């Protein structure tokens, strides 16, 4: 099923995606954007994100849903009906990858356990995102992003930096685990070219995110006995944040002596060049708490634009701070064509995000809009050998659902 | 160069990694943990993270460096010397993947631009992590994690949720971009099995992270004209954070009616079941600000353990909050064997993180300790055909450096 004008690295790969909300859809979006054909299997109620994704012009088409599900096909099947399961088996028999974030027992109840699907299609790469891995006492507990942020140390980094745990205002652990699941699928596809066999991949969110946090912060506790407290003190410093200016915020990183001394001149504190806490890279690293504190109150006298101008003249690393609103208008993003206006067939004019990675071997050329629920039910089943009569009966029996007729 | 007892999906893949600090090493760590042979090329001064990674028992072996660089080999070459460049060419001629986070012009000065390396080895997958992509005005500006957090909207999510921008106390944009770079390399390796050709991959951090943030938060502004303010209000709610108890914090997610009503009973507010703001899923979604506010002050009367016990009895999703110290002692992580004690040959007893993803097709079995600077210079050059005399001359001329002799 290689499509023309679709030249991403995963062109020709067929993915059956039974996942919903964020972690699975983020994974299959990465595959779709890289050229895979992603067939999203939805229950009659649809992916929960169709409703929970904030504002929408039409029911089921929230902005958040659309941004995680473009370049996919939607096939709506009631898998609680045996006839629905059989249709899914037909699709899975020709697929390369299966993705789910359902619990193991729920998958088994639907006849979608690894052993069954491996018999059906020995080449299938069966990918299961779990909240918590097998063998530990949290296995089978429900997964919510906040549950994982709370348990995996993400919230804990804020307790260290500001005295109080908090969540990152992103569905960060879902989203990162989704990226890592797509990574795992790429690796398994590569292995399959040699072994000619599929396999089972399990990605537990809690373990994945704990590793993410601890790689950065285990630090002194890597050693037994520990040689100091846990955590990277520079990253956890309470003043490691955007610096306030007269009219907003910027970020600055004066690291070398040249940069630091130019910075001291610009904030009218030239005497600090001789301060034993700040006179060398080593001294500033050792006294990073003081160095961060010094920065935090130093830029109130000028606007962000004035400071950036001055810092750039002196080659001091600095950067504008973008609010979410500013980000959409960012000049660099506009120059690289990252956000482009396009027209969704049912939702009208929308902003579409371009691909961010460049591959000289080719990228996906043709984008398809985020699908309405069941938009591709009929076409995908027809491609898989179902005749008009079979499809009609399945529709009548509410085994499948389609919005294609209304288009 | 397939190694025995190394059965990860990337077994046999040879990676030459010229990167340093976090973004590149995070990428090559993912490849190494999945079975690739990663040859880390270091300058005589070593990867900066050897020094900046916090506490160490011996110079250059900080905990953070070790946790991002296990399962890799260290080859120390002075690439400013022509003889050093030639040695690197010899290694690259047999490699599958090249990774760098240097600027394009710096790579060209070292004779390591894509065109040169493609001629040397047409199968090479040449991967460059950039701060900002080509074609936009920020191109060639220096990349620091905080610069990207400031510009890409990560800091901006905090302004929405709490009135003030801040950084996540993780080197989050480096770390995520590194994961996505490893994903891209996996996809390119898969494509190469068909095309038999290498390619150039560019991963710009700013664009990558802007897409990460906007996929979640573009929301209402996806539509033209916008149908509401930017940002997912539920995620950005100021009370979307771990909930304080008598002795700490926990996270809770009472979502269904059953869960919410049980929660109201347990906090002795049964009358809320009839409150029009909280009586249904739709009502609680519409009044999420009130619902979060209600939770935040409701758990001060009991300890975390008492609440978790009560919530679990009533099937209300909840989870312990782990400080960084607690995380290392977490019972589930211990049960799955995630953190295991091992002995580093020069650094003594250490905690080593296990693999978090499970592959039925096999995972890397044998782990190698984080290398000392130049630990594998001699063995890797010998494997690539250099004789003892050539190596001796290169050592004397300070083209290469080795710590292997002292072992």
Descriptive overview:
The first copy, chain A, is α/β, with parallel strands linked by helices. Chain A has two domains: 14-212 and 334-406, 3-Layer(aba) Sandwich (Rossmann fold); 243-320, formyl-coa transferase, domain 3. Chain A contains 19 helices and 13 strands. The first copy, chain A, has a seven-stranded mixed beta sheet, with helices on both faces. In chain A, strand 10 (339-344) and strand 11 (348-353) form a beta hairpin. Chain A is elongated, with a radius of gyration of 26 Å. Chain A starts with 13 loop residues before the first strand and ends in a 6-residue tail after the last strand. At the A-B interface, helix 1, helix 3, helix 7, helix 8 and helix 9 of A face helix 1, helix 3, helix 7, helix 8 and helix 9 of B. Strand 6 (199-204) of chain A pairs antiparallel with strand 12 of chain B, so a sheet runs across the interface.
Q: Bin the strand percentage of chain A.
A: 5-15%
The greatest interface here is: A-B, 146 and 147 residues
Walk across the major sheet of chain A and give the strand order: 6-5-4-1-2-3-13
Architecture per CATH nomenclature, i.e. the level-2 architecture of the largest domain in chain A: 3-Layer(aba) Sandwich
- Describe the biggest sheet of chain A? 7 strands, mixed
SS-based structural class of chain A?
alpha/beta
């Amino acid at each position: 099923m290689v499509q023309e004008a679709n030249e991403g690295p995963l062109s020709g790969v067929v993915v059956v995606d039974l996942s919903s909300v964020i972690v699975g859809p983020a994974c299959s979006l990465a595959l779709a954007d890289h050229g895979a054909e992603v067939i999203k299997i939805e229950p009659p109620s649809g992916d929960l994100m169709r409703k929970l994704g904030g504002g929408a012009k039409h029911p089921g088409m929230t902005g958040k849903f659309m941004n995680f599900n473009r370049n996919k096909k939607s096939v709506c099947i009631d898998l609680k009906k045996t006839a629905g399961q059989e249709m899914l088996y037909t699709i899975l028999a020709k697929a390369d990858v299966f993705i789910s974030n359902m619990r193991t027992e729920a998958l088994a109840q639907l006849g979608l356990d690894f052993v069954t699907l491996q018999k059906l299609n020995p080449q299938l790469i069966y990918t299961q995102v779990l909240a918590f891995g097998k063998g530990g006492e949290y296995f089978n507990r429900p997964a919510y992003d906040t549950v994982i942020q709370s348990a995996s140390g993400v919230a804990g980094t804020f307790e260290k930096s500001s005295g109080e745990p908090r969540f990152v205002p992103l569905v960060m652990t879902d989203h990162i685990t989704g990226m890592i699941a797509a990574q795992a699928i790429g690796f398994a596809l590569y292995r399959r070219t040699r072994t000619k066999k599929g396999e089972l991949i399990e990605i537990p969110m809690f373990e994945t995110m704990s590793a993410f946090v601890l790689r950065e912060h285990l630090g002194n506790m890597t050693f037994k006995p520990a040689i100091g407290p846990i955590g990277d003190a520079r990253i956890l410093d309470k003043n490691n944040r955007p610096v306030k200016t007269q009219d907003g915020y910027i970020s600055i990183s004066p690291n070398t002596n040249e940069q630091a001394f130019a910075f001291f001149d610009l904030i009218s504190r030239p005497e600090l060049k001789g301060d034993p806490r700040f006179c060398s890279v080593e001294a500033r690293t050792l006294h990073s708490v003081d160095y961060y504190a010094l920065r935090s109150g130093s830029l109130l006298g000028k606007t962000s634009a004035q400071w950036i101008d001055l810092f750039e003249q002196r080659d001091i690393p600095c950067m504008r701070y973008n609010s979410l609103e500013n980000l959409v208008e960012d000049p660099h993003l506009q120059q690289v064509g990252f956000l482009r206006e396009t027209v969704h067939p049912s939702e009208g004019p929308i902003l579409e995000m371009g691909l961010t990675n460049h591959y000289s071997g080719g990228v996906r050329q043709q984008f398809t809009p985020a699908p309405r629920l069941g938009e591709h039910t009929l076409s995908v089943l027809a491609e898989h050998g179902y005749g008009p009569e079979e499809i009609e009966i399945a529709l009548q029996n509410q085994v499948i659902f389609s919005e294609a007729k209304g288009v």
